[in-house]
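Because discrete structure vocabularies remain unfamiliar, it helps to consider an illustrative case, giving the amino acid sequence and backbone structure tokens:
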Amino acid sequence: MSTLKIKLVKSPIGKIPVHRKTIKALGLNKLGQVVEKNDTPQIRGMIKQVEYMLEVEE
């Protein structure tokens, strides 16, 4: 299964609570932090919801 590198590039401060919770669920806490997640439809949906705050590499 392929993995995705997800990087937080914008702060979730001041964003709507659902988006802040999504960022937390992806395992991101600090700006510039990178996590690797398996490429699943659930993760893709979470990324789609908050894509304006993320950079994603396949």
